[in-house]
């Protein structure tokens, strides 16, 4: 390749993942879709970082760009200081990727999936065999070593995909919605595995639309929507700084405007939003506010069809930021 | 660089592992068609008194068939071994998403598929040869001799590369939902109009067809093998099929690596 910098930056001093004004536009001259719109991102060594956002927010496109299979339209993405556009092969050597779809090699056994993956990444034969055995042990898959992969359940396949991504001991692990579509037991088991990896110092970037998952696993989270980062911080920071207190939602039969007005004046209420017949109340405390709101509605002669209280969570942070109804 | 060569050979090793596992399947899909073909046309037909003869030269039909059926096996294998698995990987299995994350430029993954596909085509040629040579009625033996081994080797190898590159090209451009049409629209016309059952020169009475079939890559594979295995039969000039085989392999390799890369890197 012509024009590649001769000096490859030292991995030790560079951030494992850095994105600068990263942008991806899909489409033709007639119709364009901006999937990622000027995203800045920096993940520290050993960090478990989450990209949180609804479906279609640009999470997978971002992962695609960071892992070299989507070409950025603008900006830069660097893995261990290497530009993904100009050093794709070197970048691929440093990353492990668990994609959304099951991409296991259906023609090979469980053990062979790990062994050949290691060989693709230049792991010597003996070491690759050893790594395959080790990882099967670590991921409790040893008994299935000789099974063909199409015989595995969704949860086991997911575990094997993660094991496979680790064979060549990547600097950075990418997990694209690893727990979507698997049963709760498998999910909890996977969370434990990912927690262990984090403890062992693995730098990880996880995308998810499951706030609970992000809250549980991630040290820092970027909330993204429409290809832009809306907020960045630790789960606790996000919950505090964004004033994501208790979210109370009320669905009213009739005109909710008078209720919204009265609600704003109530003690402990920080903000009120209205959307159709839905009233969203952001409260600094949860005790008594819901009851007071229902009481107020009744006194106004409004019928409350539905009322719910959501304790402080990333969910409420997300709703505060996007001001949108649940999409899942 | 050497790391990338290592990755290339690791990809080859994986494909050979799979081929070993599915070798029975490979043999069945390779042998069946040519075996039945020579059985009916080189054994049954002479026995029941029907028959063809190879144009005006008076040689037996089996002599015409041998290079033709080997070329068909090569061409068919290129599509079977490269295009069909690739279509699966692009559509439901998604395996390709992981394969292109191997630490090499994406085109290397495509090149490896052509290399292994060509090797399978060569293997198919080797498997089919004794069958089409040996299965025939008494007195209907094909007459073969390799007068120029180098010409034979070059024609054979480039026929295999051309078939595999064609496989990669088809595999990257075809819509997976249209796979059932692949055989009706591509494979069967290529086979029947590939100068397999008649030398290209004998098409002179149908000039439009003689020109039209020049678009068919199988014609050059057949004619190349015909020129090197049964030189006494009429065949295309050496320069013509060599140009098509070598030039076509090179061009189709470049084009298919490009369509492959475009398909996986968006």
Task: Outline the structure in words.
The complex is a heterodimer of chains A (328) and B (266). Chain A is an alpha/beta fold and 328 residues long. Chain A has helices at 59-66, 88-94, 110-120, 125-138, 154-166, 184-199, 211-217, 235-241, 257-264, 289-299, 314-322, and strands at residues 17-27, 32-43, 48-52, 74-79, 82-83, 95-98, 172-176, 203-208, 220-225, 228-233, 246-253, 269-275, 278-283, 303-310. Chain A folds into 2 domains: 17-104 and 152-238, P-loop containing nucleotide triphosphate hydrolases (Rossmann fold, 3-Layer(aba) Sandwich), CATH 3.40.50.300; 245-311, Alpha-Beta Plaits (2-Layer Sandwich). Helices cover 34% and strands 28% of the residues of chain A. In chain A, strand 4 (74-79) and strand 5 (82-83) form a beta hairpin. The longest helix of chain A is centred in the middle third of the chain and has 16 residues, at 184-199. The model of chain A is unreliable at 1-7 (pLDDT under 50). In chain B, helix 6 packs antiparallel against helix 9 (217-229). Chain B has 10 helices and no strands. Chain B has one domain (2-264). The chains are: A alpha/beta (328), B mainly alpha (266).
Task: Compose a concise summary of this entry.
Chain A is of the alpha/beta class and 328 residues long. Chain A folds into two domains: 175 residues, Rossmann fold (3-Layer(aba) Sandwich), CATH 3.40.50.300; 67 residues, 2-Layer Sandwich (Alpha-Beta Plaits).
Overall number of strands of chain B:
0
Distance between the termini of chain A: 45 Å
Report, as a whole number of angstroms, the end-to-end distance of chain B. 25 Å
Largest interface between protein chains, with number of residues from each side? A-B, 30 and 28 residues
The SSE string of chain A, one letter per element, is: EEEHEEHEHHHEHEHEEHEHEEHEH
CATH superfamily of the largest domain in chain A: P-loop containing nucleotide triphosphate hydrolases
Strands in their spatial order, largest beta sheet of chain A? 6-7-8-3-9-10
Total domain count of chain B? 1
* Overall average pLDDT of chain B: 88
Shape of chain B: globular
Unreliable segments of 5+ consecutive residues of chain A: 1-7
Q: Quaternary state, please? A: heterodimer
Radius of gyration of chain B: 19 Å
- CATH topology description of the largest domain in chain A: Rossmann fold
Q: How helical, in percent, are the residues of chain A?
A: 25-40%
Shape of chain A: elongated
What is the CATH architecture assignment of the largest domain in chain A? Answer: 3-Layer(aba) Sandwich
Q: What's the level 1 CATH class of the largest domain in chain A?
A: Alpha Beta
How big is the Rg of chain A?
23 Å
Helix-strand makeup class of chain B: mainly alpha
């Amino acid at each position: 390749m012509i024009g590649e910098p001769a000096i490859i930056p030292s991995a030790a001093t560079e951030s494992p993942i850095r994105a600068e004004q990263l942008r991806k536009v899909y489409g033709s001259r007639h119709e364009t879709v901006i999937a990622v719109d000027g995203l800045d991102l920096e993940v520290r060594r050993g960090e478990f970082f989450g990209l949180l956002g609804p479906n279609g927010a640009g999470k997978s496109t971002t992962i695609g760009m960071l892992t070299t299979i989507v070409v950025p339209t603008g900006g830069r993405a660097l893995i261990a200081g290497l530009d993904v556009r100009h050093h794709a092969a070197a970048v691929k050597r440093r990353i492990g990727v668990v994609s959304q779809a099951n991409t296991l090699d259906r023609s090979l056994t469980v053990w062979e999936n790990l062994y050949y993956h290691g060989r693709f990444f230049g792991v010597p034969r003996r070491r690759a065999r050893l790594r395959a055995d080790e990882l099967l042990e670590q991921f409790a898959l040893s008994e299935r070593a000789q099974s063909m992969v199409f015989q595995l359940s969704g949860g086991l396949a997911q575990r094997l995909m993660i094991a496979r991504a680790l064979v060549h001991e990547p600097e950075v692990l990418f997990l694209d919605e690893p727990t979507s579509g698997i049963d709760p037991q498998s999910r909890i088991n996977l969370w434990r595995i990912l927690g262990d990896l984090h403890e062992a110092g693995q730098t990880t970037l996880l995308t998810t639309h499951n706030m609970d998952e992000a809250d549980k696993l991630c040290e820092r989270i970027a909330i993204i929507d429409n290809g832009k980062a809306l907020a960045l911080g630790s789960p606790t920071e996000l919950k505090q700084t964004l004033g994501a207190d208790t979210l109370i939602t009320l669905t009213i039969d009739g005109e909710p405007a008078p209720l919204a007005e009265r609600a704003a004046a109530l003690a402990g209420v920080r903000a009120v939003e209205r959307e159709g017949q839905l009233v969203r109340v952001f409260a600094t405390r949860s005790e008594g506010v819901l009851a007071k709101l229902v009481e107020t509605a009744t006194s106004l002669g409004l019928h409350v069809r539905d009322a719910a209280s959501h304790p402080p969570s990333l969910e409420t942070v997300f709703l505060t930021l996007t001001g949108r109804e649940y999409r899942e | 660089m050497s790391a990338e060569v290592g990755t290339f050979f690791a990809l080859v090793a994986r494909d050979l592992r799979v081929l070993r596992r599915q070798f029975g399947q490979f043999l069945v899909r390779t042998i069946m068609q040519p075996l039945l073909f020579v059985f009916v046309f080189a054994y049954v037909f002479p026995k029941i008194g029907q028959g063809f003869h190879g144009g005006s030269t008076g040689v037996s039909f089996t002599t015409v068939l041998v290079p033709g059926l080997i070329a068909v096996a090569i061409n068919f294998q290129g599509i079977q071994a490269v295009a069909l698995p690739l279509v699966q990987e692009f559509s439901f299995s998604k395996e390709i998403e992981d394969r292109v994350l191997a630490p090499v430029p994406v085109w290397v993954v495509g090149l490896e598929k052509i290399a292994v596909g060509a090797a399978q085509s060569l293997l198919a040629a080797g498997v089919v040869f004794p069958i089409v040579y040996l299965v025939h009625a008494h007195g209907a033996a094909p007459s073969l001799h390799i007068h120029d081994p180098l010409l034979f080797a070059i024609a054979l190898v480039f026929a295999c590369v051309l078939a595999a590159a064609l496989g990669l090209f088809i595999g990257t451009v075809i819509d997976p939902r249209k796979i059932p049409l692949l055989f009706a629209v591509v494979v069967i016309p290529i086979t029947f109009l590939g100068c397999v059952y008649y030398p290209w020169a004998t098409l002179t009475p149908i000039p439009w067809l003689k020109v039209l079939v020049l678009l068919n890559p199988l014609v050059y594979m057949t004619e190349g093998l015909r020129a090197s295995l049964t030189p006494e039969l009429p065949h295309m000039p050496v320069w013509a099929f060599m140009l098509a085989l070598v030039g076509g392999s090179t061009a189709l390799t470049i084009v298919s690596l490009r369509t492959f890369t475009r398909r996986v890197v968006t």
